[in-house]
Amino acid sequence: METQTCVSEQADAKAARAAIARAWRGEPLGSADAVALISCPEQELSRLLKAASRLRDRGKGRLLTYSPKVFLPVTNLCRDRCTYCTFRKEPDDPEAWTMTREEIADWSRRGRELGCREALVCLGDKPERAYPRYRQTLAELGVASTIAYVREACAIALEAGLLPHTNAGLMSRAELELLRPVNASMGLMLENISPRLRGRGQPHQWAPDKTPALRVQTIEWAGQLSVPFTTGILVGIGETLAERAESLLAIRDLHARHGHIQEVIIQNFRAKSEIAMAQALEPQPLEMARAIATARLLLGPAMNIQAPPNLSPDHLELFLAAGVNDWGGISPLTSDFVNPEAPWPHLAELRARCARAGFELRPRLPVYPEYIDPAWIDPGLTDRVRRAAAELRS
Ligand code: SF4
């Protein structure tokens, strides 16, 4: 038995070494390579991290970015019930809310005063399909749909000097078209490509909007409409290593078709007492490092790869070694509404830690510099985005 284990470990190590070498030479990687990388055995881990780190340096240099943002959780009602979620509330929960126009304007103004550039407009998926009481709220607000209200929220944030980035869950092509003129970029986490996670007892059993094919469709439409787009995977929700690898390949393929994926987030599941998955194991730091490094090798030196620093505050240096080049949105005003227990890092401390690891930390806009181009930004926003980019550089 021991001999068999040893033979299989040697085979895994050999497969990982071959995949790393292929990635380094810029050769296309397939499913078997992706699985070999993400399940890289301990003995080859430093080789994997070194390759990913060097590839990041080749494309991004020693620069780490973050987006100073204000969170605008327009509504925390959602028709889905993901078993790891703390964001969604039932309509009769005292913490359920839908932001008023005044709150949106006030939070936006305060965020801008504190130096924010991004308005992260974030909400539950299709609440009007589930809750008559929320349909009444929309009627009182004088709007026909949540997306129509989100468009107004974006316009209010723009008025306050922010650049919106909307993540409203699944959207139709028409909805994406409606929001494009008021968004610098948009996003939707793929989370995972496996339909198995929608099955009985799985985290997405009660989440129709987490059907992978539908999420791929939304991301595809965003590409067809030239929307700079953020997506990513959620690590540790019960997926296998192969499913994790296939999810990264699906993102790579979407980007190959449309060139619109500006950023890929590798986000770790966090267990919390109030969720159905309270007892589930969180992914280990080295598991995250393998996922980050695999993303870097599959997606190449030019891709922006992000891991949220507030979800792994003790492992930032490891993630740097695995090839990240961005820390995502960090807010001086609002908490992380999706992970409220995880405070944002202090910028000065984050800057010092990056510097100790040999990196410079710099703010960025919600749209990455390579997408600040009329081909990607609505004509009504182009000047505004260019001005903001120039201010950030000065
Ligand atoms: S994770 Fe998103 S889609 Fe799932 S229940 Fe929470 S808010 Fe809804």
Distance between the termini: 64 Å
Query: What about the largest sheet?
Result: 9 strands, parallel
Multimeric state: single chain
For the residues shown, what is the average pLDDT? 95
CATH topology: TIM Barrel
Number of helices, counting only DSSP H or I runs of 4 residues or more: 13
Low-confidence stretches: none
- Strand tally is 9
Look at the structure and give the CATH class: Alpha Beta
Tell me the CATH superfamily. Aldolase class I
H/E series, N to C? HHHEHEHHEHEHEHEHEHEHEH
Hetero ligands:
iron/sulfur cluster
CATH architecture call: Alpha-Beta Barrel
Tell me roughly what share of residues is in helical segments: 40-55%
Assign an overall shape: globular
Kindly name the structural category: alpha/beta
Alpha carbon gyration radius: 21 Å
How many structural domains can be distinguished in the coordinates?
A: 1
Percent of residues in β-strands: 5-15%
Can you describe this structure?
- Strand 4, helix 8 (212-224) and strand 5 form a beta-alpha-beta unit.
- The model has no long low-confidence stretch (mean pLDDT 95).
- This protein is of the alpha/beta class.
- The protein has one domain: TIM Barrel.
- Helix 8 (212-224) packs parallel to helix 9 (241-258).
- Helices cover 43% and strands 13% of the residues.
- Strands 1, 2, 3, 4, 5, 6, 7, 8 and 9 form a 9-stranded parallel sheet that branches.
- The structure holds iron/sulfur cluster (SF4).
- Residues 78, 80-82, 85, 87-88, 124-125, 169, 207, 209 line the site of iron/sulfur cluster.
